[in-house]
Fold:
Amino acid sequence: MGGIDVANGVVGAVIGMLFAVLFQQPLQDAWFRIRRRSASALRSLRSREESGPAWRTFSLGPLQTSALIVEGDGETPIPTETIFVHVLDEDVRLPADMEPWRDEIATESERLRAEGRTPLWNGPRYAVESFDISRTSLDETPEVHLRLRPTDYYTFLAAQQLDRRLPDGATPRSRYLDPEQPLAAPAFLQCSFAVNVAVVTADDMLVVSRRSERVRMAPGVWNSSVNEGLSRHIDSSGRSAPDLHAVCRRGMREELALEAHEYSLDLLAFVLDVDKRHWSGHYFARLKELRSSDLQARMSRGVADRWEHQTIDYVPFRPAPVIKYLLREDRIHRWAPLAPALFHLALVHAYSRTSVERVEAQIVRRL
Structure:
């Protein structure tokens, strides 16, 4: 019996070895294929086909804005010589069913004047007829054609009532704007083009302003260092088109008492507030010698448009401090729509997109 047991053990061992040689590797390969196919199937369930708009407004973690960066990435400034501004002759006119809204504003202004209060000054402005972008043939530098029409402040205020009901129940937003075509809008709904400047002092402090409670549009919100709208009366001598850099220099002088020789100036982007239809040229200005304390002392001796700013903060101009400042609990819901994109682009201009986005991602993950 002992011999038989030994023989059976030998035979079993041989059969086991043959089974391992003949079947173990194929079974392992089959099991691997099953696992791989299962993992692929699970991934396909999680990653379904998606689609979304190519145009998305600027966001930074929980900070969501209506600012659409139309041209420019911050890293490469847009040259002055490739910006062409054309002024058309015919004034912008409101549709007949919106004209009474403008009349209401004129009546309100007269009432304020009669009461001895500050009336609404109906300043001459520009409306954006169209904004077109192309590239130069040799180096693909952006080439911008901005077409403007004459308008005024009362028309602008009337057109800002985008969600007010018209006699037929529609609103200007529902009737004239298509969310799928953010750059398409009639000129009478785009009666605002401004420049916004991010100003950095010689000791690397970013100037951030809070709009006065006295201004009619967006009072009390935190905004760019300088915000200046195009004026037909001031920015266009004779019939010439306005120069956007000159508008920036006017804003720097009127709001911060700075002269052109005291800073460098770069155009970073063109941006559209798709909610209110406000266009902006986003600029970066770096002071050559004036430190933040020097600027404060300068402003203490008089500023032409002091009433436009209620508070001015000075923030260390490095990615982490600026991003944390943008996302502060007492700031995140109090920004003018175009300002966060401006400060992001200014950081990119100074530190590169890769560096800024790395810091942004780290800070957002910690929230």
